[in-house]
Design a protein that fits this description.
There is one protein chain. The chain is an alpha+beta fold. The protein is built from 10 helices and 9 strands.
């Protein structure tokens, strides 16, 4: 049974946080309230999420089969069969079953002699789809309960003798500096490195952002290495403490201010229409145009 991320003293105080939660809160507390606290989501599933989930699942399967001793040819054949088990990806002409299969085949060819080696722990566990949670060094105000930080590492891999957390992304944008710079200072990478040290007891030194560009007629691949030293982790913890306290303040006072500077980011906030309505009718708009699907950082993946 998955535990609730909300504290028993306040059903709107999220004390089990992750990068998605904190990033949404920093973007706009009102957006955070609607999406994380209330669980409102746009109806249906966007093609990027459907395709991304399928591609991610297939790559994880491919890596697991290689680790089990299967040849790259046989592992790819099995993975392609698995790719046909997913339902339709929607009407995005770039994110199709054909482009999924093409990306898998080209990925296997691109990294046929891969310099990354999936890490295997001493107990035999393979470093794929690793969920983690750990207590943060500060308490929920007025309690003895620590804040908790959670996340999921796609893959732990050895590169040039060091361990890295591999974070897989797919995009329809070009794989240039503009794309990879999004993750250079991402708190997500610090979370991976910190978890490697305190949860998995392995010396993770950074993250490798592994991205696939999916287009109508081609797929391209790229990787960028992001290092994190102890001083980076200390800064990350200080920032996380600040933002979790801001979140706690909003939950305590039941006040979620709008950051109107974020309304037009990422092609427009999904709640922009809601916020434009009279506060008295916003709940009706949410109920008529959105569905409830709660985000829970404590849900685990893999084994």
């Amino acid at each position: 049974m998955t535990l609730s991320p909300f504290h028993p003293t306040n059903p709107k105080l999220q004390f089990a946080i992750d990068n998605t939660s904190i990033s949404t809160f920093k973007d706009c507390p009102q957006k955070y309230f609607y999406s994380i606290i209330c669980g409102w989501r746009s109806t249906g599933t966007a093609p990027p999420l459907v395709f991304g989930g399928a591609y991610h699942d297939c790559l994880e399967r491919y890596d697991a089969l290689l680790c089990s001793g299967l040849s790259p040819k046989d592992a790819l054949r099995d993975t392609i069969r698995h790719a046909f088990s997913f339902e339709d990806f929607g009407d995005d002409e770039r994110r199709t079953r054909s482009s999924l299969v093409r990306s898998l085949v080209w990925y296997a060819d691109q990294y046929a002699s891969d310099v990354l080696t999936t890490h295997t722990f001493a107990n035999g566990r393979v470093g794929l789809e690793m969920s983690f949670s750990f207590e943060l060094p500060w308490k929920v105000a007025g309690t003895n309960d620590s804040f908790i930080y959670s996340g999921h590492i796609d893959k732990l891999a050895l590169y040039s003798g060091d361990l890295y957390a591999v974070e897989r992304k797919h995009t329809v944008s070009s794989l240039g500096d503009q794309f990879f710079n999004r993750y250079t200072f991402s708190g997500q990478t610090c979370g991976y490195v910190y978890a490697g040290k305190v949860v998995f007891d392995v010396p993770v030194v950074g993250a490798i952002i592994e991205a696939t560009q999916v287009a109508t007629n081609y797929s391209r691949f790229g990787r960028v290495v992001v290092h994190r030293i102890n001083s980076h982790l200390e800064e990350w913890l200080q920032d996380l403490n600040y933002w979790s306290r801001q979140l706690e303040y909003c939950a305590t006072h039941q006040y979620w201010p709008r950051n109107t500077e974020s309304c037009s980011k990422y092609n427009g906030c999904q709640f922009r229409k809601v916020c434009g309505k009279d506060p008295a009718v916003r709940e009706l708009v949410l109920k008529s145009e959105f569905a409830v699907r709660h985000w829970n950082p404590l849900e685990t993946r893999g084994d």
